[in-house]
């Protein structure tokens, strides 16, 4: 998919592994946002997939910096966020929606992959924070979680289905129309966050298979 690119921010390598799984599935370019990659490089890109550890302070800071650089370009792009972290499926949508609020795009979708914590890979600052947390709470901090590459492969397959779906492309076309009819309603899948535009919700969610009747109508 030449008009799609996967970008990632990583310190311990997990986000990179997930990004590579997705880019391999989609047969598209994969690039670290730390490398020289100017905003104008997005000129011929239709869909931007961003993979990052949303709980990592360093990756979060660099991700925000990158988004600020390409903020204007994002308004005309389809953006897909893939968050990697520890057992935080409930928290990630809140973070992702805040990112979208600050960096609006043509279309927006989000996915999550379970991550891991390996003490020996942490930076001194991170270890110091965890040590302090352990002292305050009395909790032992140790290795936890495993990077769920099976989940990453499933997410990659879901993204492929999403990008190739009629619903996704119809949403893109509708967003391209500055004079979008007021009759077109925004419907959101409560299970995966997929967005559908139309007078009625789709029969089924093309991403997760949820029935159309569970879609939530976004109030104006």
What descriptors fit this protein?
alpha/beta, five-stranded parallel β-sheet, 220 residues, three-stranded antiparallel β-sheet, 8 strands, 7 helices
Question: Can you offer a commentary on this structure?
Answer:
With 220 residues, the protein is of the alpha/beta class. Helix content is 37%, strand content 20%. The protein has seven helices and eight strands, in the order βαββααβαβαααβββ. The strands form two sheets. Strands 2-1-3-4-5 form a five-stranded parallel sheet, with helices on both faces. α1 (14-26) runs parallel beside α6. The model is unreliable at 177-182 (pLDDT under 50).
Give a brief outline of the structure.
The chain is of the alpha/beta class and 220 residues long. 37% of the residues lie in helices and 20% in strands. Residues 177-182 have low confidence and may be disordered.
Q: Note the beta-strand portion.
A: 15-25%
Distance between the termini: 34 Å
Question: For this entry, what is the oligomeric state of its chains?
Answer: single chain
Low-confidence stretches: 177-182
How are the strands of the biggest sheet laid out side by side? 2-1-3-4-5
Structural class: alpha/beta
Mean pLDDT: 79
User: In percent, how helical is the residue content?
Assistant: 25-40%
Describe the main β-sheet briefly: 5 strands, parallel
Tell me the radius of gyration: 18 Å
How many beta-strand runs?
Answer: 8
Shape: globular
């Amino acid at each position: 998919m030449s008009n799609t690119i996967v970008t990632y921010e990583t310190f311990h390598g997990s986000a990179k592994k997930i990004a590579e799984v997705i880019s391999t599935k989609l047969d598209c370019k994969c690039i670290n946002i730390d490398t020289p990659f100017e905003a104008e490089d997005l000129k011929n890109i239709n869909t931007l997939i961003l993979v990052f550890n949303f709980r990592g302070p360093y990756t979060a800071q660099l991700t925000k910096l990158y988004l600020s650089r390409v903020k204007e370009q994002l308004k005309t792009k389809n953006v897909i966020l893939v968050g990697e972290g520890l057992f935080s499926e409930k928290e990630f949508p809140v973070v992702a929606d805040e990112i979208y609020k600050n960096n609006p795009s043509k279309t927006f979708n989000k996915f999550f992959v379970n991550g891991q914590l390996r003490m020996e890979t942490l930076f001194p600052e991170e270890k110091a924070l965890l040590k302090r947390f352990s002292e305050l709470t009395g909790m032992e901090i140790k290795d936890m979680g495993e990077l769920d590459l099976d989940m990453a492969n499933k997410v990659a397959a879901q993204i492929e289905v999403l990008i190739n779906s009629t619903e996704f492309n119809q949403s893109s076309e509708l967003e391209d129309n500055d004079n979008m009819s007021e009759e077109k309603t925004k419907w959101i899948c409560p299970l995966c966050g997929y967005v559908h535009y139309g007078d009625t919700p789709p029969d089924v969610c093309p991403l997760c298979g949820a029935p159309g009747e569970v879609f939530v109508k976004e109030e104006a």
